[in-house]
Amino acid sequence: MKKITIILALVLIVSTSFAFTGKETVSDNALKTFKSEYVAATDASWTITKDFYKVSFTMNDQKLFAYYSKSGEFLAVSRNISTVELPASLKKSLKKMISGAWVSDLFEISNHDDTSWFVTLETADEKIMYKSQNGMKWTVFEKLEK
Question: Which of 92, 105, 127, 135 could form a disulfide linkage to 144, CB 3.0–4.6 angstroms apart?
């Protein structure tokens, strides 16, 4: 499951959720799984990629993104969050890391087994994405120069 979380995070980072150009449709299993897990979802919009399905939807006034395998198995759900929504330990350590940088992206990915948080800190010269799995300490996930 950790590989799935990392893969989905990379997908979000580099925005590789390009729509599949063929005539493929979302599998009935994926639709059924989505409808059973997110009964109160509204405004569902599906994207078909080479490896998975992504559905953007609203629930409880929040925009969420769920990912399903081609066979319809739930992979993960993600949502953008603010720093106030982080667990207390991560919020505290993030404050120490921010010196001279700003938060340009912060999101949470969870599946049935665990939850991970990703934060991107930027300075004038670089972008660093940090990851925390299950509320543990932040580790460098990706470093980019501008």
Answer: 127
Which residue, among 17, 24, 85, has the nearest Cα to 55 in the 3D structure? Answer: 17
Q: What is the pLDDT of residue 103?
A: 96
Q: Which residues of the chain have pLDDT under 50?
A: 6, 10-20
CB-based contacts of 117: which residues, under 8 Å, 6+ apart?
Answer: 81, 86, 87, 90, 106, 107, 108, 109, 131, 132, 135
Domains of the chain plus CATH, in order, are 2-79 (3.10.450.360), 83-145 (3.10.450)
- Is the whole model's pTM more than 0.85, yes or no? no
Tokens of 80: 């953008």
The owner of tokens 């580099």 is 14
How crowded is residue 57: how many other Cβ atoms within 10 Å of its Cβ? 19
